[in-house]
Amino acid sequence: MKKGKIGVQMMMLKGKVEELGAYETMKQVNELGYHAVEVSQIPMTPENVAELKRASNDFDIKIAAMSAGLEPMLPGAPGETLTNDFEKIVSDCKALDCNFLRIGMMPLNLMGNKDDIMGFVERAEEMAHRLAEHGIELYYHTHHLEFQKFDGMYLLDIIKNNTTKLGFELDVHWIQRAGENPVELVKQYRGRISLLHLKDYRVAAMDLTDIDVNKDLAKFMDRFVNTIQFAEVGEGNLNIPAIIDAGLESGAQYFLVEQDEQYGRDPFECLQISAENLRKMGYSDWF
């Protein structure tokens, strides 16, 4: 029976890498039973690359994907980019035996302007062809902003229709937040995805203990409209098994657990809860 690989999006663990180092962080990922990671928001210093490589070998953890901006997030912002550091990023991918690279977000200064966005997409498509010569596939990670409409069409669909080599890393929480059905949307991207973010979507209980609604309606309304939370997989409202089935049918190889905010919980605890829930759903042999 066909199956995928469940892993961890390491953006959740960037604080742990700073505190414990990459090797010890990966050791604890292994102890939770995960054997694939996507490296994100972790500085790719020679030390971190070496520790990730050593941990990958020692704990049999596949480096499923790595992250790189196409361009700086804002003009002049620091950090590696494919435009400026192509050879270094390709070298890191080769060192870590990783052939999937993902752009986490388009530059902030381009958002909202269709012409600027399409220029970025054209450059990303060119970069996808360039990376393919080195055996590396390029993916674009989606949020909810890609569901803004231009001339009645989602930006995400416009990007898809204007590219052939660039793939998509769909994030099911953000699809839900954008008002679409993650199961159906994932199916529409069959053949264009290899990486899928498993991130649940929870409507939190409202805590009004510190608010006098009669005196501070604005504070109440702020909390009222911000009860949507990121949740451990299986602790929210999404139909995770249906999403996983749709992902597998559509070409996803890696299903990466992510939770942008942990609301005071230790991220390792969040990852443990997600893993336990996924095993209860029948995915034990995907770890």
List keywords for this structure.
287 residues; alpha/beta; TIM Barrel; two-stranded antiparallel sheet; 11 helices; 12 strands
CATH homologous superfamily assignment: Divalent-metal-dependent TIM barrel enzymes
So what's the overall shape?
Answer: globular
Number of helices: 11
**Helical content, roughly?**
40-55%
> Mind telling me which CATH architecture this is?
Alpha-Beta Barrel
CATH topology: TIM Barrel
Q: Domains counted in the coordinates: how many?
A: 1
The span between the termini is 15 Å
Strand content: 15-25%
Low-confidence stretches: none
Brief characterization of the structure:
This protein has 287 residues and is α/β, with parallel strands linked by helices. 41% of the residues lie in helices and 17% in strands.
Explain how this protein is built.
Helix content is 41%, strand content 17%. The chain is an alpha/beta fold. The protein has one domain: Divalent-metal-dependent TIM barrel enzymes (TIM Barrel), CATH 3.20.20.150. Strands 1-2-3-4-5-8-9-12 form an eight-stranded parallel β-barrel. A two-stranded antiparallel ribbon has the order 6-7. Helix 1 (14-20) crosses helix 2 (22-31) and helix 2 (22-31) packs parallel to helix 3. The radius of gyration is 19 Å and the shape is globular.
